[in-house]
Amino acid sequence: MHVVVFTRSTPDTAAKVEVGADGKVTWGDAATVVNPWDEYALEEGILQAKNGGGKATAISIGGEMHNESLKHSLAMGLDEAVRIEDAALDANDSLAYATAAAAAVKKLGDVNLVICGKESVDVGTDQHIYQMARKLGWTLLAYVSKILEVDYAAGTIKVERLLEQGKQIVTSKLPAVITVMKDINEPRYPSFIGIRKASKAVIPVWSLADLGVTPPAAHTKLVAFKNLPVRDTQVEMIEGTPEEQATQLVDKLLQEKVL
Amino acid sequence: MSAVFVWIETFEGAALPTSWEALGAGALLAEKSGGALTALVFGENADAVAKEAGEHGATQALVCADATLKGFRLEPYAALLTKLVQEHQPRAVLAVATTRGRELLAASAADTDSGMISDVSSLDVQGDGSVVATRSAYAGKVMSDVSIDAAGTQFITIRGRAFRPNEAKAGAQAAVTSVAPVLSEDQIATKVERFEAEVGTVNLTDAAIIVSGGRGIANNPKDAPGDAGDAAVWKAKDGFANVIQPLADVLGAAVGASRAAVDAGYIPYAHQVGQTGKVVSPDLYIACGISGAIQHQAGMRTSKVIVAINKDKEAPIFKMARFGLVGDLYQILPALTAELKKRLGK
Ligand SMILES: Cc1cc2nc3c(=O)[nH]c(=O)nc-3n(C[C@H](O)[C@H](O)[C@H](O)COP(=O)(O)OP(=O)(O)OC[C@H]3O[C@@H](n4cnc5c(N)ncnc54)[C@H](O)[C@@H]3O)c2cc1C
Ligand SMILES: Nc1ncnc2c1ncn2[C@@H]1O[C@H](COP(=O)(O)O)[C@@H](O)[C@H]1O
């Protein structure tokens, strides 16, 4: 039994992010951290590997910046980590990512379950996860808020998914790709020993040639990053007793035509 | 001329209102290419929804009401969409970037090796047929322009409340064609056991008005009953039920929350707004007892008008608000609810 968790590094969520004069996105000297959503995926990977008596591997696609999230994964307690890097993936096209990700899962060979975070807080194009599932021909269960039952021997899984209108309870078959929500578990902090072990780990890097795939032609291209239009945020303070505040606020909101 | 497909998402047989926004975005593409604006309607009540899509400007509709499509499941929906894309080679496929829309379009784009851009807030058709779309990145701290070429079908999901819906015209009709499903029930591994709908609540991502509560909700002046367990949790839940909800009800608003409120167990995670919650873009966002941390801002900064109610005049939320009220939410909100009832005639 083998679980794979996909993860990436992102700028710290409190970082001030802007587009510099060179058109590149910068976050000053703010730290990069594991993508917050992935902490739930990594925790679930550890729990499921234990539950199924198998192992858990973390995979990141991208440059050295992503060693951060892989070291964090190992420090939390995942067994192995691999990074995939190839110039052909620089275009950030989701099909290329999905093709590489699916090939990596196939290369590992014995995988029953792939877990991803719901989205990444930087590029946030969850689409490549769903596309990886299609490229693998596996079940896709996104937005999982609870794994209710899983039987790795029988190849069955039952989960609760959090959708806009409520919770859906579904059963399906393994192998599967799932994305998990914040509600699913309480991610652990890496232990001191874990951090020490991870800091010494040498993380293997696979190229597309190692994976034996050529991604389909990219149809999408990043044209440019842009800073947000300046918001006219001159706040108007409304004072008085609560009743006076309420009356004035309603007047203003009616004027703004938002009621 | 190749068609522009728009998937009309339904829930329990009714179209989501944002689907008409997807038709509006589709019309922008169809105008330029001259192709038929084609509604795809699958599942329960599909014929009636296709009729509605016609009133909202679709000139064609492809409809499949087969029992296997009752309630969204990715396998049968994606198999059918992929087959229709292969047969018709549309220039584009659009849907709203809901949980289902994201999965469905991504799956079919992968099946057909097509390009896809998700969650766009505007689009611009170029002379060569390529499309440049704007989407937010880095949790809304910057934006990116992404292009998609015209070599294949362009798969695009749109952010809800970003495009103007196609207005309904009584009597307008789409030419409806019935299509057959691709998978039979025994070829579909995923079975829905049940759906626990959140009854009576307004969906956050569709809402025109949102009233959100944060950690400040725990400062309820009411005393918790002796057997309440955690007094702060009791007070906060009482505040959400008896102070936030009545205001939301008179406004027809959805109820949101900060992560601090969710993590403390005051309200379920489904209500969380922010970087690790939902991204919302209402006309009016009323933040009550929320300090306005950057991770909360990530989920609500594109709201048209933001009202902040906080007892601390230094709270960062006032820096992004249009209107600020310093004071105790437990005094201001009941007054506001009463005033609105009077003024809106409810
Ligand atoms: C990786 C990561 C992801 C995160 N994701 C999210 C997210 O998705 N969404 C999110 O919201 N946060 C998120 N956070 C948490 C965020 O940093 C803040 O901790 C959180 O938003 C604070 O919530 P709050 O404003 O309710 O609480 P506080 O910051 O404690 O603010 C409470 C406010 O209530 C006011 N108040 C108290 N009593 C009253 C009263 N009676 N009347 C009026 N005002 C009162 C206080 O003055 C104060 O300003 C994330 C953090 C991290 C690190
Ligand atoms: N470069 C990457 N390498 C590995 N996994 C990734 C990468 N980018 C995203 N993921 C995974 O996909 C999820 C969704 O990210 P995104 O598609 O960027 O929104 C993340 O939570 C990760 O689990």
CATH uppermost class of the largest domain in chain B: Alpha Beta
Percentage of residues in strands of chain A: 25-35%
Helix content of chain A: 25-40%
The overall number of domains of chain A is: 1
Question: What is the third-level CATH name, the topology of the largest domain in chain B?
Answer: Rossmann fold
Count of the domains of chain B: 2
CATH topology of chain A: Rossmann fold
The distinct bound ligands, ions and cofactors come out as: flavin-adenine dinucleotide, adenosine monophosphate
Highest CATH level, the class of chain A: Alpha Beta
Tell me about the largest β-sheet of chain A. 9 strands, mixed
Q: Please tally the β strands of chain B and state the result.
A: 17
* Radius of gyration of chain A, CA atoms, in whole angstroms: 22 Å
- General shape of chain B: elongated
- The secondary-structure class of chain B comes to alpha/beta
Number of helices of chain B: 9
Characterization of this structure:
The complex is a heterodimer of chains A (259) and B (346). Chain A is of the alpha/beta class and 259 residues long. Chain A has one domain: Rossmann fold, CATH 3.40.50.620. Chain A is built from seven helices and 15 strands. In chain A, strands 11-10-9-12-8-1-6-7-13 form a nine-stranded mixed β-sheet, sandwiched between helices. Chain A has a two-stranded antiparallel ribbon with strand order 2-5. A two-stranded antiparallel sheet of chain A has the order 3-4. By secondary structure, chain B is an alpha/beta fold. Chain B is built from nine helices and 17 strands. Chain B has helices at residues 18-33, 46-55, 74-88, 99-111, 231-251, 259-263, 294-300, 317-320, 329-343, and strands at 4-7, 10-11, 14-15, 37-42, 60-64, 92-96, 115-125, 131-137, 142-148, 154-158, 175-178, 191-197, 209-213, 254-257, 284-288, 305-310, 323-326. In chain B, strand 8 and strand 9 form a beta hairpin. In chain B, helix 3 crosses helix 4 (99-111). The interface between A and B is large, with 83 and 94 residues. The structure holds flavin-adenine dinucleotide and adenosine monophosphate (AMP).
